[in-house]
């Protein structure tokens, strides 16, 4: 466990278990602190872990390198509903492969330059950048409609 790095990373509910790096990137391997989760369907709590599939999520750059988080995507079993439920993390939107703060940052960068330049700078495809901008736009519209 890398306590100081976990503190620096500043993401809720996770700790950095270990890390490695190459010339261009740093990889943080995360562990999730919660033992279980609440079922989205019936709201009952379960700790019955069914499977873990690690996913790679891009986060804000650090030390001049791209940062990737290796996050365990956990699936639990709810005995009440008899369904498998996938855990959602507070800092990654459902089915996205970037942290929310990374997507916000890309959105901001595109507003101040253009998609092509941001794609090149971040080593993302044009489609990736467009998908991020659309996703953040939709979220903002939704938030506006609620408030
Ligand atoms: Zn349930």
Mean pLDDT: 94
Task: Characterize the overall form.
Answer: globular
Number of domains: 2
Stretches with pLDDT under 50, minimum 5 residues: none
Biggest sheet details: 5 strands, mixed
List its traits.
alpha+beta, five-stranded mixed sheet, 147 residues, 35% strand, 2 domains
Task: Describe the protein.
By secondary structure, the protein is an alpha+beta fold. The protein has two domains: 1-90, no CATH class; 93-147. 33% of the residues lie in helices and 35% in strands. The protein contains four helices and seven strands. Strands 1, 2, 5, 6 and 7 form a five-stranded mixed β-sheet that branches. A hairpin with a 2-residue loop joins strand 5 and strand 6 (65-78).
Summed up:
With 147 residues, the protein is α+β, with helices and mostly antiparallel strands. The protein folds into 2 domains: 90 residues, no CATH class; 55 residues. It contains 4 helices and 7 strands, in the order H-E-E-E-E-E-E-E-H-H-H.
Give the helix/strand layout.
Elements: H1 3-9, E1 14-21, E2 25-32, E3 37-38, E4 45-46, E5 49-62, E6 65-78, E7 83-86, H2 100-112, H3 115-122, H4 126-146
Parallel strand pairs: 2-6
Antiparallel strand pairs: 1-2, 3-4, 5-6, 6-7
Bound molecules: zinc ion.
Zinc ion (ZN) binds next to loops.
């Amino acid at each position: 466990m890398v306590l100081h790095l976990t503190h620096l990373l500043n993401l809720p509910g996770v700790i950095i278990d270990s890390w490695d790096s190459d010339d261009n990137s740093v990889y943080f391997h995360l562990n999730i602190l919660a033992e279980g989760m609440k079922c989205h369907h019936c709201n009952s709590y379960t700790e019955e872990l069914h499977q873990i599939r690690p996913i790679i999520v891009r986060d804000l750059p650090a030390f001049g390198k791209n940062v990737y988080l290796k996050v365990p995507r956990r699936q639990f079993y709810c005995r009440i509903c008899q369904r498998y439920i996938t855990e959602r993390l507070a800092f990654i939107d459902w089915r996205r492969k970037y942290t929310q703060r990374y997507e916000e940052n890309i959105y901001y960068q595109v507003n101040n330059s253009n998609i092509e330049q941001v794609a090149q700078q971040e080593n993302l495809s044009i489609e990736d950048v467009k998908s991020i901008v659309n996703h953040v736009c939709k979220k903002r519209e939704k938030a506006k409609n609620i408030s």
